[in-house]
Amino acid sequence: MGLAMPLLVLGSGALLLRLVTRDVHAEQDAHLRERAAVLLPLARGLLRTEESGQPRKAANRERQLLDAGLDVGVRLLAADGGSVTDGSGGGNPAEPGRNLATRGGPQGYRVVAAAGPQPPALASLPVAAPDPVTVRARGHAWRALSVEVGGANARKGPRGTLWVFSRGSAGTAEVSAVQHRILVVALIAAPLAGLLSWAIAERATRPLRRLQRRAGGLDPGTSTARLDHAPSRITEVDDLARTLQTVLSRYDEQAARTQEALATARAFSATASHELRTPLMGMQTNLDVLTDHPDLDPVDRAEVLADLRSGQQRLMATLIALRALAQGDLVEADAFGVVDLSELVAAAVADVERHHPGVRLTLRLTPGLRLSAWEPGLRMAVDNLLRNAVVHGSRAGLPARIEVALRPGGRPADPVAVLTVDDDGPGIAPEERQQVFQRFHRRTGSPGSGLGLTLVAQQIALHRGTVRILDRPTGTGVRFEVHLPRPVDPAADTRTLELPLHRAWLSEVPGEGPHDLPTRT
Predict the structure, then answer these.
(1) Around Cβ 75, how many Cβ atoms within 10 Å?
(2) Is residue 83 predicted with pLDDT exceeding 50?
(3) Are 463 and 496 in contact (CB under 8 A)?
(4) Higher per-residue pLDDT: 105 or 435
């Protein structure tokens, strides 16, 4: 930029000089045309008078023509064929051989009259100059204009050419003066413009260079230092700084998610090996019994096989639950979509009725409750709530009685969907209600993996909801109450898609790690 400004000043000066030169020439040319228009009738009359053979009258006509030229040079050329004057104003015959070939005109023309500032007689002229041109000779310049006298196609009367000249120096002085002034101004303005533009560019780019130094020293892989930018009141620089901060923030988020994914994989392996050791050892013991006692009593053999089947089912349930927890820890926002919660709950209840026909199940729901959700995870949460009620929601000797309800709730500005699952079991003591959401927490004699309610808590947290355990409003048993955000326009919902950055339900104990259980008081 420091070099561009001086060049711009010099270019502007050259353009200004060219415009002034053109204007000066235009003024000269206009004056020549004006004089030519005045002289043309006089030149026509002089040619006619000369052709009629009246020397004295021709001399008078010539004097009138030359006097009317005023400050311009006049040269009248006639086609060969009449007497020639010497241009002295007295009508004297011209010397032999004085024609345009040697005296200022093309072959076949002769000078009738000439006076005033004009090129030398031997100077070469163009054949015609209907528009003013510059003629140079012996280091001098003239602006020249020619006008046909009588017309080239005239059948009668004399023919000739009237030349009008103006000294080139008439405008050269003005052009030289302007050129001198422009040169002086350019020599002063160009360095000043360069210095000024350099100073402006230096000041304008200072925040950008400062930002470059700060950003250049950052290494997200080895340092936790991040870009600290104070507003510079330069929009482009501040926008660039915010963009860099956003990029670094997203890098940190992705790095954290990568670390969590690795931690989840390690936790999955460690937890699976620990939790599967007991059922695998039990299965190994039963297999050893069957192997060592091939003649085992049929009743005992059936008991061992039932124990093997139970261990295998528990093993599969634990693996499936661990995989589901890992999926919940790694799910991303792009897996979420618009889900009809009413249809999802109805389908889950229908599956329970099909697989457990002895359960007495009541369903009350409001249709059309839609929200933004990860459908597999939300279905998993509902399935585990119902499965928990089937297993623990009955008293000895009686079938389980389960009541499921889904209704809208919350304030108009913050609507929610409320899902309740009531059972008729022994209930849960208030001091134990937080513990049931912890990993591998099982009631004595429970056939489950101890991960069902942990999955419920994880999925409700992912969906920005809450879950709490209450006493059943009527009779014994408990109520699981879930509140899920239900935006007015689920397709445009962005709050639910803001997933928790830290998710470690597989590797940490809920309620004791960096995240709390999504419960309500």
Answers:
(1) 27
(2) no
(3) yes
(4) 435
Reported as a single tens digit per residue, the pLDDT across 32-42 is 899 999 999 99
Report the alpha-carbon angle 165-167-170, nearest 5: 135
Say how far apart CA 45 and CA 40 lie, in whole Å: 9
* Cα gap 428→517, rounded to integer Å: 17
pTM for the model stands at: 0.47
H-helix or E-strand spanning residue 374: none
Retrieve residue 384's tokens. Answer: 């585990």
CA distance 111 to 100: 7
- Phi and psi at 445, nearest 5°, equal 85, 5
Q: Are 70 and 35 in contact (CB under 8 A)?
A: yes
Highest-confidence segment of 252-266, 306-320, 337-351, 478-492:
337-351
Contact 407, 365 (CB under 8 A): yes
Pick left, alpha or beta for residue 132 (phi over 0 → left; psi -120 to 50 → alpha; otherwise beta).
Answer: beta
SS3 450: coil
Token pair belonging to 162 = 């009237």
Q: Cα–Cα distance between 422 and 476 in angstroms, integer?
A: 10
- State which amino acid sits at residue 29: D
- 237: nearest Cα among 206, 200, 207, 203: 207
Whether the CB-CB separation of 142 and 104 falls below 8 Å is answered with no
Cα dihedral sign for 458, 464, 466, 467? negative
